């Protein structure tokens, strides 16, 4: 099993839709979790961090389920500008090496 | 505040040549990381500096890769000699605190080895 797994998508949704991505992780000792957004040929940029059960920022909600070892990202009222790849990052191992998922591609269309 | 900067943005070299990538972290960030993304794969950790010390270099693929951070400011990543499989995007990131903290990424260096 990969340390961090994501459904690559693409998720193709209309503007205004609600979409959710999941990310599963294998290291039960992981304590912090991150969602990054990466636009085509650009660097990853932090979207949200999750240290406890969840986090909310405007249209974006991240939730952590420690029992099932996954984190989710919910985007409400999708905008065209939300089109990007969403990367799940979980610091893992003894020295908490940031481990990336392959990313989930989101395409929001008019 | 200036973000993480990387130089060059692109590099095209031939197999067997040497290339040196540079990263300038956000001022005051003691933690500096190098990552690589090979086409079609996820971003992979290469190594982590705390100030000038290598904290973790478990992700370095082999001894053709040498990273330095003299003085604890900017860092260089040298590939010598370059091989075809070294092609990819090399990202640098920095953070204020530990690896569990938010990291800020540079724009990356796209390396192509022919």
Explain the layout of strands and helices.
The complex is a heterodimer of chains A (110) and B (114).
Chain A: E1 4-6, E2 11-14, E3 19-25, E4 33-38, E5 45-50, E6 54-57, E7 60-65, E8 70-75, E9 84-92, E10 97-100, E11 104-109
Parallel strand pairs in A: 2-11
Antiparallel strand pairs in A: 1-3, 3-8, 4-5, 4-9, 6-7, 7-8, 9-10, 9-11
Chain B: E1 5-7, E2 10-13, E3 19-24, E4 31-37, E5 44-50, E6 53-56, E7 65-68, E8 75-79, E9 88-95, E10 104-105, E11 109-113
Parallel strand pairs in B: 2-11
Antiparallel strand pairs in B: 1-3, 3-8, 4-5, 4-9, 5-6, 7-8, 9-10, 9-11
Q: What kind of sheet is the major sheet of chain B? A: 7 strands, mixed
- Secondary-structure element series of chain A: EEEEEEEEEEE
The beta-strand count of chain A equals: 11
Based on CA atoms alone, the radius of gyration of chain A comes out at: 13 Å
Poorly predicted tracts of residues of chain A: none
What structural category arises from helix and sheet content of chain B? Answer: mainly beta
Key words describing this protein structure:
heterodimer, A: 110 residues, mainly beta, five-stranded antiparallel β-sheet, 0% helix, B: 114 residues, seven-stranded mixed β-sheet, four-stranded antiparallel β-sheet, 11 strands, 48% strand, globular
Please sum up the structure shown:
Chain A has 110 residues and is mainly β. Chain A is 0% helix and 55% strand. Chain B is built from no helices and eleven strands.
């Amino acid at each position: 099993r990969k340390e961090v797994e994501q459904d690559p998508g693409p998720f193709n949704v209309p503007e205004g839709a609600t979409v959710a991505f999941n990310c599963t992780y294998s290291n039960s000792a992981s304590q912090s979790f991150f969602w990054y957004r990466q636009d085509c040929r650009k660097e990853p940029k932090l979207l949200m961090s999750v240290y406890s059960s969840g986090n909310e920022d405007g249209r974006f909600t991240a939730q952590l389920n420690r029992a099932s070892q996954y984190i989710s990202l919910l985007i409400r009222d999708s905008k065209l500008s939300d089109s990007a790849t969403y990367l799940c990052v979980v610091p893992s191992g003894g020295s908490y090496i940031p481990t990336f998922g392959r990313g989930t591609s989101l395409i929001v269309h008019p | 505040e200036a973000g993480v900067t990387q130089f060059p943005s692109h590099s095209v070299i031939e197999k067997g040549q040497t290339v040196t990538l540079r990263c300038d972290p956000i001022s005051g960030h003691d933690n500096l990381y190098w990552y690589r993304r090979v086409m079609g794969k996820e971003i992979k950790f290469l190594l982590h500096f705390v100030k000038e010390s290598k904290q973790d270099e478990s992700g370095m693929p082999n001894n053709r890769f040498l990273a330095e951070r003299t003085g604890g400011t900017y860092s260089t990543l040298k590939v010598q000699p370059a091989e075809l499989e070294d092609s990819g995007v090399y990202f640098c990131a920095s953070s204020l605190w530990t690896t569990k903290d938010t990291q800020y990424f540079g724009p990356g260096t796209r390396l192509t080895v022919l």
